[in-house]
Design a protein that fits this description.
The complex is a heterotrimer of chains A (295), B (237) and C (336). Chain A is mainly α. In chain A, helix 9 crosses helix 10. The longest helix of chain A has 37 residues. Chain B has 237 residues and is of the alpha/beta class. Chain B folds into 2 domains: 120 residues, Rossmann fold (3-Layer(aba) Sandwich); 69 residues, no CATH class. Helices cover 36% and strands 20% of the residues of chain B. In chain B, the strands form 2 sheets. In chain B, strands 6-7-8-3-9 form a 5-stranded parallel beta sheet, with helices on both faces. A 4-stranded antiparallel beta sheet of chain B has the order 2-1-4-5. In chain B, helix 4 crosses helix 5 and helix 4 packs parallel to helix 7. The longest helix of chain C has 16 residues. Chain C has 336 residues and is of the alpha/beta class. In chain C, helix 6 packs parallel to helix 7 and helix 7 packs parallel to helix 8. Chain C folds into 2 domains: 184 residues, Rossmann fold, CATH 3.40.50; 73 residues, no CATH class. The chains are: A mainly alpha (295), B alpha/beta (237), C alpha/beta (336). The interface between A and B is medium-sized, with 23 and 34 residues. Strand 1 of chain A pairs antiparallel with strand 4 of chain C.
């Protein structure tokens, strides 16, 4: 085949439409590099750089970014780069833990409602609708207020307000899968209800649930920051990104921009990187190579 | 005997897809059900294969009245049917390799031992090569995937086959090949067949008896849904 | 046959896909054929033989990992060399009207048929975007495809399969394109509807229309229909091109192909013999993978006429690519 198709003398192959692919690759690579850098910084900087992020240096308070302090210092002279890295560490922990919890809860609820259908589905979805009508932050504030400040109440507060959307997504996906003939075929092949749910429905919704979970990590970080900014999240001495921004409020009005800008960037950059990766991943996991071959 | 009597079924109790349809298939008999697309014959096929609970009417399976459908139906009743659908792409779990797809009913019913041998044997019957068995649905053509779906329908040695537009998307050669597989299986086991389709030439050639959907529904409902190609709007609102 | 210049002239068209891992899949190899005005060429073959890829190549709709070679001349324009801008502005709709595979999915569900037609008329004919000018033009376009004017305000889901097909055909005809390209227009339709659809397509090919939405209309069209439905092909086609494993293996007159003396390539014979109103016997075996084609004749492994000669790829000679073709009408054609 090769000798005739490709090797024929004078065969000039043309291609078109390569640019979509290369921008996609660029986006993927940029996101991957940024996210890797973030995670490495969080994991490696604290053990390697044996500096105290709490070290107060009143002689060097509110210094602008420079050689000694690349991100500048805060109002008691603590190094902002170090504070940001530690803050990101806490925020990422909260984000990942909350996203995982919310996804597990949401998937379980959504899959149960979708797979069982009938009155179970109707009842569960009414509850979900009712909870969704309460503003997230308000409910989050209630949950945090019931406990002493700390990491886990914040995780619980974010997780318990964010499983609703996952439950909706998973239920809708299960319902659409359930109507497909391959589920009919499984039923006819003697599969039990449990087997249909676990072997045929759940694996089909996992890509969606996983994408939702990944996208929820930055969202949960934002939520943590918002709670901390309101003074309801983590204890004020803990360096979380929300606490850092909250502390910087006063200096921003005085014209010192760096204590606000850098923690803000530490929230935005991982958010964009995660969104970019999740988008690329979603394109990849869809088994649709076929359409490229057009068989 | 597969005996449907005065069946009314649909997806909304207030507006059933069809009313009061009766149809029976004798053991070992091949019955073709001919009708235009969208008229409800697929729903009837699903009722017959215990996959869709009718709103009214009875279904007798070898003299036993069927009281439950889908998961509520006893497993022996459900697995007495092998079902093949029109769109192979939608009737295959996209994550399963073809070998696992064919073996799935064996695993679901706890007959793992000897599954590999049974899959190899059926793959040869439907004309799938060993290489194809290792692929996932998106890596094979529609015709090859439908061959695998037919193998899956036969793997539990059903007494009844329900083929719902099995060959509507396939080319002539694959159609002839799949029909031959079904007929060889029926000749060997004496299974009954309900073949649903819209191609009279094909059904007449394939089945001993071809029933017109219009004749089944005519007495009660004059023209319920969509006679072929008429300029009639299906749902006016 | 008619002596008219071809509307579409395909010369050595090849398409290959670059797959991950450097694998190459030859989806179309060295296709040569012409389609003339007033003529319907049906391209038939099993699913996965590359016929849809050929259609996409003509429309410039191949995915990014595809490469093309050869020429596809539509008048003076080489479709394979044209850039996206040319294809979008002068080819699609204006030079090639596409009759899609599943019309219901091809139409936007939230818009009425009238909105579809008016938009297309405004785009393709440059008619002023005023209600007064568009309305009659859209209604004329609907009439040409025998779409009932009183159904123009319906949405796609309210139409029967036959009407949706007519709506799609009406859209394809708006630009008065010299070439109609129908990609599996009958898939999933029942037999009566298949007959009706191909009869209507045939009418647009054979009957030059006077009047119409534009002045000076009334030339015959060329139709390239891609299908796996042999009965539909028999009903509509003047000529048949049989595709197998990425190559056109036979080009034949439709009457001779479906009647006497019948197809010349053993694969074409096998396809016809598989019809339920003929022998109903399948071609043994499976078609080869496009990514792993044999060096010689790709059909040899399934062919009862195969000999050692088949280890060499047969060229398309006298309209058939086979070392042992069945007898032609005249022996002269065999040696041509």
């Amino acid at each position: 085949m090769a000798d005739l198709a490709a090797g024929r003398t004078g065969t000039v192959w043309r291609s078109r439409g390569g640019e979509g692919r290369s921008t996609r690759t660029l986006r993927l690579r940029t996101s991957a590099v940024l996210l890797t850098a973030t995670v490495l910084a969080v994991l490696l900087v604290p053990p390697l750089v044996r500096l105290d992020q709490q070290a107060v240096d009143l002689a060097a308070k509110l210094e602008a970014p420079g050689w000694d302090h690349p991100f500048g210092t805060d109002d008691v002279g603590r190094d902002l780069l170090l504070r940001c890295v530690y803050g990101l560490r806490v925020s990422l922990l909260v984000g990942v833990a909350a996203a995982l919890t919310a996804t597990v809860v949401g998937t379980a609820v959504g899959a149960t409602a979708g797979a069982l259908g009938g009155w179970v589905d109707r009842g569960v979805m009414r509850v979900v609708d009712a909870l969704s009508s309460v503003p997230h932050l308000l409910m989050g504030v209630f949950i945090v207020a019931m406990f002493r400040p700390g990491v886990w109440p914040v995780v619980a507060s974010v997780a318990l307000t964010h499983w609703l959307s996952t439950a909706r997504i998973v239920r809708a996906e299960v319902l659409s899968l359930r109507a497909r003939p391959h589920i009919d075929a499984a039923v006819s092949g003697g599969a039990s209800r449990w087997r249909v749910t676990v072997r045929h429905l759940l694996p089909g919704v996992l890509p969606q649930a996983a994408t939702a979970a990944v996208l929820m990590v930055p969202h949960a970080m934002w939520h943590e920051s918002a709670l901390s900014f309101l003074g309801l999240g983590l204890p004020t001495h803990t360096a979380s990104l929300g606490n850092l921004i909250q502390e910087a409020r006063g200096s921003l009005l005085a014209g010192q921009w760096w204590p606000t800008l850098f923690p803000g960037l530490f929230i935005i950059v991982p958010t964009l990187a995660v969104a970019g990766l999740a988008g690329a991943w979603r394109e990849r996991i869809n088994p649709r190579r076929r359409s490229e071959l057009m068989l | 005997m597969l005996d449907l009597r005065s069946v009314t079924a649909g997806y909304d109790k207030r507006a059933p897809v069809f009313r009061d349809v009766s149809l029976s298939v004798a053991p070992g008999e091949a019955v073709g059900l001919l009708g235009p697309s969208g008229c409800g014959k697929s729903t009837l096929a699903r009722v017959a294969a215990l996959l869709h609970r009718p709103d009214a009417g009875t279904l007798h399976l070898d003299g036993t009245p069927v009281r439950h459908w889908r998961h509520r139906a006893p497993r022996e009743q459900r697995t007495a049917f092998g079902v093949v659908f029109q769109q192979a792409r939608l009737s295959a779990d996209p994550r399963l390799r073809l070998a696992d797809l064919i073996a799935e009913p064996l695993r679901a019913t706890g007959r793992r031992e000897g599954a590999a041998g049974r899959v190899a044997e059926l793959a040869a019957t439907v004309g799938l090569t060993a290489d194809l068995l290792t692929r996932r649905p998106h890596e094979v053509s529609d015709g090859q995937l439908q061959r695998a779906c037919l193998a899956r329908a036969l793997v539990l040695r059903p007494r009844w086959l329900v083929c719902d537009e099995m060959t509507a998307m396939l080319d002539a050669s694959t159609t002839a090949a799949l029909v031959r597989v079904v007929e060889d299986y029926r000749a060997a086991t004496g299974a009954g067949l309900l073949a649903v389709g819209h191609d009279r030439v094909l059904l007449d050639r394939w089945c001993e008896r071809t029933v017109d959907w219009a004749a089944l529904t005519a007495p009660t409902t004059p023209a319920p849904t969509c006679p072929p190609g008429t300029n009639k709007v299906r749902r006016g609102n | 046959m008619t002596g008219r210049a071809p509307v579409l002239s395909v010369r050595g068209l090849s398409v290959r896909f670059l797959m991950p891992g450097g694998r190459r899949v030859a989806a179309v190899t060295d296709a040569h054929f012409d389609v003339r005005a007033g003529e319907c060429l049906a391209l038939i073959g099993e699913s996965g033989c590359g016929k849809s890829v050929l259609a996409s190549a003509l429309l410039g709709l191949l995915p990014g990992n595809a490469q093309t070679a050869g020429r596809a001349l539509l008048g003076d324009l080489d479709l394979l060399a044209a850039d996206e801008r040319t294809l979008a502005r002068t080819v699609r709709g204006r030079l090639i009207g596409l009759v899609p595979q599943s019309p219901a999915a091809h139409l936007t569900p939230v818009r009425t048929i009238r909105a579809h037609l008016e938009e297309t008329v405004a785009q393709l004919t440059g008619a002023r975007r005023t209600r007064g000018a568009l309305r009659p033009a859209a209604e004329a376009a609907a009439e040409r495809a025998a779409f009932p004017v009183d159904h123009l305000d319906h949405h796609p889901h309210q139409l029967s399969g036959g009407l949706a097909q007519r709506a799609a055909t009406a859209l394809a005809l708006v630009g008065d394109a010299p070439l109609l390209l129908a990609d599996e227009p009958t898939t999933g339709l029942d037999r009566d509807l298949v007959d009706r659809t191909v009869d209507e397509l045939r009418r647009h090919v054979h009957q030059p229309e006077g009047g119409g939405a534009r002045s000076g209309g009334g030339r015959a069209r060329a139709l390239l229909m891609i299908t796996h439905d042999l009965a539909a092909a028999e009903r509509i086609a003047d000529r048949i091109a049989v595709m197998y494993a990425a190559r056109i293996v036979e080009l034949a007159d439709a009457a001779a192909f479906f009647g006497a003396p019948g197809p010349r390539h053993p694969y074409s014979r096998g396809l016809l013999d598989a019809l339920p109103d003929r022998a109903f016997a399948p071609v043994p075996g499976l078609p080869p993978e496009l990514g792993a084609l044999p060096d010689g004749c790709a059909f040899a492994a399934r062919c009862d006429r195969a000999t050692d000669a088949c280890a060499v790829l047969p060229p398309l000679r006298a309209h058939v690519a086979c070392h042992h073709p069945h007898a032609a009408l005249t022996e002269a054609a065999d040696r041509a």
